[in-house]
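User: Can you predict the 3D structure for this chain?
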Amino acid sequence: MFTVANIITGFNLMFGVSSIILTFSGRLEWAVLAIIAGAICDFLDGFVARLMKQPSELGKQLDSLADLVTFGVAPGLIVFVLLILSGAWDIILLNGGELNELWLDGTMGFSVQLWISVFMNDLVGNNSPFLPTHFYDWYKVMPFFALLIPFMSMFRLAKFNLDERQATGFIGLPTPANSLFFAAFALMLWDGFGQDNWKTVLSMTLIKDQLLLSLVVLFSILLVAEIPLFALKFTTFKWKGNEIRYSFLISSSIIILLLWAWAIPIIVILYILLSLVNNKVGRITS
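Assistant: Here is the predicted structure, written as structure tokens:
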């Protein structure tokens, strides 16, 4: 039971839980780093299991349970908080306010935690004398649409365990890719905090409810869509037969060097597009 691979899977779970705690503490950037650490563990547990010849049905089930937390619940709650911020900003603009009313004095984490507290107070009607009333009607409901991410991730992971077609590739978007795509929005928001340039404008645009909710629905559908996507599994390291994998890795490395955190959603979209191209080319040549 307590094999090296399964222990690494346990660390994946703990990083996911840590991400949730950090999210509701307002430290979204640390929450994203915890998900990235979980993704590294998710890669290592399978690698170690194969290296030490310890693959097991128990390990497979533990992996899915950990993945549901780290790549389903954790990113869903990050988006939940991003939608709270989006709603707060919308209401500020409707009342003729400006962006600096969203970001209060202090760190970004302080502002995020405060808005979470205001939202929760308005949601359950605590009427705290220490928190101003701010959210109403649609803005109380909107953040809950983020829970579509863990909901669809649950079905994606269960399907993966049962679908024998996914031994060498994926059918539907893998949960780690979906998780990193949405988690990156929080990282970009942190990177643009306190600046007055394109990073600020773009990061605030990306969390606007109309765009973010549309992406949540689209990517949730992609999780369970019958679309083949390639996996980064090498049987040999030759160029022939691995063209799509090497092309993706080289392109991703260049994008990361140029854009750093801003590269993550671009890389996920590139992964989807290259998979679609690979599917079409494969059908043409076969």
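The mean pLDDT is 92. Residues 230-286 form one domain.
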